[in-house]
Amino acid sequence: MDKKHIIFSINSAPYSVNQYFYGNRSIKRKETVEWELTILEQLRYKQIQDDFQSLKSQFDPCKHSITVELDFYYPKDILFTKQKQISSRAFDVTNVEKPLIDLLFLKKYCTNNIKNMEIDDKYITKLISQKKHSENHRIDVKIELIDLQFD
User: Fold this and answer.
1) N or C: fewer beta carbons within 10 Å in the chain?
2) What's the pTM?
3) 73 with 134: CB under 8 angstroms?
4) Dihedral of CA 15/17/18/19: which sign?
5) Phi, psi (5° rounding) for residue 86?
6) What stretches of 6-137 show up as alpha helix (H) in DSSP?
7) Class of the CATH domain delimited by 5-146
8) CA distances to 37, 75, 139, 151 from 115, in Å
9) Tens of pLDDT along the chain (151 residues)?
10) What is the rounded CA–CA span in Å between residue 105 and residue 52?
């Protein structure tokens, strides 16, 4: 039986949706495209590609929803201010979720060599996100299929 979850890490800083576009919100910034390419390049790894394929093959929209857990790691000097408070340099957690979710789920980001879940993110019924301290930027991802509950 296949496992109903996948876990992997991405070596990248989180990226805020607030930085995604130029003023008119129709043209992506150069930094946005570079960040997306950095993420997609890491999704190319064989194990991640195999795990995506395995989970996708099990997914049945009549039987499953999806839970996503995202841990956003920041170096201490970015996560905290000198006054030992959470810094605004560690983006609002809700602003870093959507760009990553789109890259992980939307078919438009797939290429011939790089696939993602290719499942509409409307099937995500639970999203857990955290900011954490680490020596380096990193994003840990867990995607899990959950059996639908009809009460």
Assistant:
1) C
2) 0.92
3) yes
4) positive
5) -65, 130
6) 30-43, 46-58, 76-79, 93-105
7) alpha beta
8) 13, 30, 19, 35
9) 468 999 999 999 999 998 888 877 789 999 999 999 999 999 999 999 999 999 999 999 999 999 999 999 999 888 888 998 888 888 889 999 999 999 999 999 999 999 999 999 999 999 999 999 999 999 999 999 999 987 7
10) 10
**Other CB atoms within 10 A of residue 70 CB:** 22
* Amino acid, res. 81: T
Please calculate the CA angle 29-69-57 and round it to the nearest 5 degrees.
95
Q: Is 146 helix (H, G, I), strand (E, B) or coil?
A: strand
Q: What count of Cα atoms within 13 Å lies in the side-chain half-sphere of residue 86?
A: 9
Question: Cβ distance 131 to 86 under 8 Å?
Answer: yes
User: Could you give the CA distance from residue 46 to residue 87 in angstroms, rounded to a whole number?
Assistant: 36
Distance CA 99, CA 20 (A): 8
Q: Which residue has the tokens 């170096």?
A: 75
- Radius of gyration for the alpha carbons in the chain, expressed in angstroms and rounded: 16
